[in-house]
Amino acid sequence: MAFIRRSNPVSRRHLLRGAGVSVGLPWLGAMAGSNSAAGREVNGKTLDRPPMRSAFLFMPNGVNPANWNPVATPDSDQFDWTPMLRPLSGVGDELILLENFHHPDLAGGNGHWPKVPAFLSGGHVLRTSGRDMDTGCTSIDQWMAQRIGHKTPLPTLELGVDSAYTGVDNVGGGFTRIYGSHIAWRDRHTPVPNEIVPQLAFDRLFRGVRSTPVSGLNPHHRAVWESMHRDETSVLDAVREDARSFSKRLGREDRGKLDEYLESVRSVERRIESSRKPKARWVNEGDLGIQRPGPGIPDSHVEHVRLMMDIMVLAFWTDTTRIATFMMGNAQTGRNFSFIDGVKGSFHGLSHHRNEESTLRQYEAIGTWHIGQVAYLIDRMRNLSEGDGTLLDHCMVMFGSTLRDGNKHDTENLPLLFFGGGSAGIRRGRRLTAAQPTPLCNLFLSMAQNMGIDDQRFSTSTGPLDLA
């Protein structure tokens, strides 16, 4: 292989730099170093193998159970593709279908609001109007970040597509709607805002923007627009000279990987530019009484979701962070999914299907669409070479909802999927059915241990889940 000379390995932390811009690099053969300590992580400088990452994807409102879980097959961990899982058939060798997992402290209570923050915390969520929010536990992503987040420029990356809610749902039991807007909680009382504008999420990776996201709270705020238009220069244009000089130091194979990576960055930039709403233009002060759309949100929901997924991939590929969350919708999201054939209405509205055939069919179609987007993400990750495998080999991706059936609001046997982790010896391409209802936090604990965290308990866990 035509890598850089082993006597002068490239640091995993090497950045391409330009005016106000820094671009991390994907894993290159030149980063392997030698078999000596020079190639290992010493004072955070370099690694001799790609690190493990964790991603947590959340979908609100549950699934149609009748078309989710396959019929049980005695003495076999294989399964047939049900209608809702069929979009994953092309990546089935990377999938573990998790069955009979739950959060034991989630039973009862309101249908939606307390279940969302419990997704990654597993804790008992306090009923409150907002003054004394308590999720019972820090979420697993933030818990991981407290232990290993110092190893990357961004300890975690929180992404979403919906603005955060405010107010109290007095009809739904007196819970603050803030609960329904966040799966990441820095501690049991403090939610972590999601970034919902693709360009601002992209800037956090490459332009050194480390401030707390504001778009997740209010994408119409002027500060969001100003953030988007601080600098129109492509990050690749800014680092072009440094990239050209660095490329000369690499062998042929690594140059090909670098070109592929930079083209991926360019592709995301182009899509952000083409989808941005409104375009860059002069803005006069004052109010004409005409409401204009909020800046930065793509017209197409499909494009919005996939841009966020691609930004997550870039964040992992550059080792900008090793921990990420993505909310594909808030609790009771009112988003209209009429862009799907045969669907007329919102996800939450249709989730109360009352077992009416037409409504149930539309509800299932929306859930199946979400599964198709997950398939897109997994396919992207498994087609990116990294070290001696793929990016997906060095990532663990969990997808799920904290409701089983949106009509019943039930929380047992949650709809859950797990992908990747091949480099950690995780055996995929199967169903994993717990013999009895098992805390989902057992999975979280196993993921943390695969990330190099030595703790033996998280929240309601009773022990690590055997994924081998």
Automatic annotation (TrEMBL):
<dbReference type="InterPro" id="IPR011447">
    <property type="entry name" value="DUF1552"/>
</dbReference>
<dbReference type="Pfam" id="PF07586">
    <property type="entry name" value="HXXSHH"/>
</dbReference>
<protein>
    <recommendedName>
        <fullName>DUF1552 domain-containing protein</fullName>
    </recommendedName>
</protein>
<dbReference type="InterPro" id="IPR006311">
    <property type="entry name" value="TAT_signal"/>
</dbReference>
